[in-house]
Amino acid sequence: MKKTVVATALSAALSTLLLPNLASATEVITVIGSPITLTEQATIVPTTNTQADFGDQLVRLPGLSISRNGPVTALIQYRGLFGDRVGVSIDGVDINGAGPNAMDSPLSHVLPEPGLTATLYRGVVPVSAGIQTLGGKLNIQSDAAGLFSMANGFQGNINTSFTTPGSAQQVQGNAFYASDNGFISGAFMHQQREKRESGNDLEIPNSNYLRNDAKLRAGYELGKHQFDVSYQTLNTNESGTPALAMDIKFIDAAWYRLGYRFSQTDDRVLSISVFGNDNQHIMDNFTQRMPMTPAMARQNDTDSVAQGISATYVQPFMSGALTLGVDVQHHRNNSVITNPNNAMFFVNNFTNVERDTGSVFAQWDIASSTYESTLGIRATRVETDAGLAGSNMVMMNDAIATLVNTFNSADRSQSDNMIDIAATTAYHFTEYTNIVLGISQKNRAPTYFERYTWLPLGITGGMADGFNYIGRLDLTHETARQFEIGLDMSFNNWTVSPRLFYQDIEDYITGNPSQNMAANMVSTMMSGRTPFQWTNTDAVIEGADITVNGEITRSLSLNMVASFQHGKRDDIDDALFRIAPEQLITRVQWASTLFNSPAFFHLTSELAGRQSHVSMLQSERGTGGYGLVHLSALWQLTPAMQVTVSANNVFDKHYTPHTGGVNRVMNTSVAVGDRLPGAGQEWQMSFSYQF
User: Fold this and answer.
1) What sign for the dihedral angle of Cα 464, 467, 470, 475?
2) How is 362-403 classified by DSSP, letter by letter?
3) What is the C-alpha to C-alpha distance for residues 81 and 123, in angstroms, rounded to an integer?
């Protein structure tokens, strides 16, 4: 199975590398001429984060919100799609998490370093941005070009922050040395917190975390050749995930990347990237919470491995630039469930589940005095397979024996062939107005848990609806067709950028009540409820988002982001699950001085509407709207020292975010099945020193 993918991709790669005039595109669209909002960026800094995984610093990006199952498990939701449908890469590495419920989500691997930015491809994602970008793409990286251009010599910084209540602490530091031909850098971070409280002084269940992170990076230039290598480790100890059936006992994760860039000329550049990651992850339901009985104690030992290689080049083509590329990836996952109180109990949940991906693409970028366009096509083949299932319960439960035998005797080798097409055009209507049009067809192959969950379990990739699910081997890939129209307007130091979008998703993968009698008997015995089975259906998502940026006065500026999305299934009259309601985030910044030193004051208003369009099939409850106010002040005490003080949720508002999940932890201040509340009033003080 794997030989087909690898041979096809390597053949394409070799033919690419042997062609003359090699070059490479950057990951972010290069805009020529008047500014066009094809991407949105947010800077990730360690001095103002209120969430351990920095998810709070991304919500100012249009159309983006966070689905959170715990303090370190942020899942990006973009225009109504989240989880594996939204691509997230860290320094060019696509993280393959070990946990089937996304406890080690890609955002949990973020470690701030100089110049770290999050770049969101707004709307239609170009094919060069990555594989399977059906739900959008977010690149979090510190660009190597910026590091190579930094001044020679040694520099560094250290940041500390303290938050109360909850005794949250964070220490983060960077060290950087540059010479004429290269650089070397190091970064570390320690984070811990005991608890978090809601606006009515209730302790939010299992809101504790403890993490340590370290990263090394180096680069070297030799003439037209440039090398860049990165290695990062992350150790997460006991951390809560109250919206899931288990908590994090530990996660030991590492990822690496080796990059090479050959600049034959300014417009002919070859780049190659070799990357991978390795995760070891144990979760359980008895260390940080009490199981109903000792017999129901469970521990899930999981691991994952990923390797990949990508090569791209750009060369001039018909008054524009032609980008050609190839990607090859291999993923493997394992999962074994045990009971520490019963040495005989085991479930071989996922055994040697493998996923091999080969993909090639071509993209043409062209610009003129009246328009700028990006046209691209990508062909992808995904092949998956799984080892044998097993459990000690086979000998005592006929229904489980039936599930094991059916799964093991089936053809578990599956494949998906997909064609992605994306086209975006920005027409210069006037000197100050651009009309942006985008259209695309994007695909996503089923995940390993959607295909290979043979025993009904609460495995949903982080959706966390509380139901058990069983996989389906014959699932086909999703195909989303999207249309977008928008404007980019600029006048008198103000920019306004609205977008309207419509997305029709054919073969959308979601749960329907299971018709598998054996699975139904097992799930009813375990949970009292009939499980769902992953099924191909159809769905529609539509909505709008807008950004407004400008200067009110020379010292007063405003940033506003509004988003709205509406998602529904086409096969039945029901909403998609856990869709973020409309939201409006407004931030006003005042630049001033304090004791002759620069000072910046921020007032942020966060408004969220009520969500009543919920999934009745999945027993989803609606939530009320709310409004929050946050204040912060940054004082540049000396050129090297900076102090930040902030008050979040100033009025101590009690609220329940719709994307925050529901509580699964018994015997807490929040009843099981109730919405998890958001954090109440919190005070934070941060210190940053540069040397």
Assistant:
1) negative
2) EEEEEE-SSEEEEEEEEEEEEEEE----EEGGGGT-HHHHHH
3) 12
User: Smallest Cα–Cα separation from 664: which of 522, 454, 458, 456?
Assistant: 458
Work out the end-to-end distance of the chain between its first and last CA atoms, rounded to an integer number of angstroms: 54
For residue 603 the two structure tokens come to 């007032």
Report residue 145's pLDDT band, with 50, 70 and 90 as the boundaries.
Answer: confident
Dihedral sign of CA atoms 128, 132, 136, 139 in order: negative
Place of tokens 């800094």: 45
C-alpha span between 415 and 399 (Å, rounded): 29
Residue type, 459: I
d(CA 329, CA 311): 12
Reading the block at residue 393, the tokens are 């319960």
Q: How far apart are the C-alpha atoms of 452 and 471, rounded to whole Å?
A: 5
Distance from chain centroid for Cα 287: 27
Residue 453 three-state SS: coil
pLDDT digits (tens, 9 = 90+) for 649-682: 999 999 999 999 899 999 999 999 999 999 999 9
Q: How many CB atoms lie within 10 A of CB 655?
A: 21
Mean per-residue pLDDT, 620-646: 95
**pLDDT, position 23:** 29
The 10s digit of each residue's pLDDT in 529-578 is: 999 999 999 999 999 999 999 999 999 999 999 999 999 999 999 999 99
- C-alpha 433/C-alpha 74 separation (Å) is 36
Q: State whether the Cα torsion 43-82-211-244 is positive or negative.
A: positive
Average pLDDT of the segment spanning 456-472: 95
Burial class (CB in 10 A: 0-12, 13-18, 19+), 5: buried
The whole-chain average pLDDT of the chain stands at 91
Q: Please report how the helices 517-527 and 398-409 are oriented relative to each other, as an axis angle in degrees rounded to 10.
A: 130
- Spatial separation of the C-alpha atoms in residues 526 and 530, rounded to whole Å: 10
Instruction: Identify the H or E element spanning 522.
Output: helix 517-527
CB atoms within 10 A of CB 51: 18
Mean pLDDT computed over 485-506: 95
Cα–Cα distance measured from residue 391 to residue 19, given in angstroms and rounded to the nearest whole number: 53
Distance between CA 144 and CA 414 in Å, rounded? Answer: 38
Taking residue 179's Cβ as centre, other Cβ atoms within 10 Å add up to 11
Q: 182: closest CA among 149, 146, 220? A: 220
Compute CA distances 449 → 281, 372, 413, 469, whole Å: 16, 41, 14, 9
Q: How many CB atoms lie within 10 A of CB 20?
A: 7
Smallest Cα–Cα separation from 326: which of 365, 274, 403? 274
Chain centroid, CA 149 distance in Å: 29
Return d(Cα 625, Cα 612) in angstroms, integer: 10
Amino acid at 618: Q
Distance CA 523, CA 306 (A): 32
Q: Among candidates 72, 70, 99, 71, which has minimal Cα distance to 84?
A: 99
- Facing residues of 76 across strands? 66
pLDDT in tens, 385-417: 999 999 999 999 999 999 999 999 999 999 999
Hey, is 329 helix, strand or coil? Answer: strand
pLDDT at 4 over 50: no
Residue 3 has pLDDT above 70, yes or no: no
Query: Which residue, 604, 599, 592, 606, is CA-closest to 633?
Result: 599
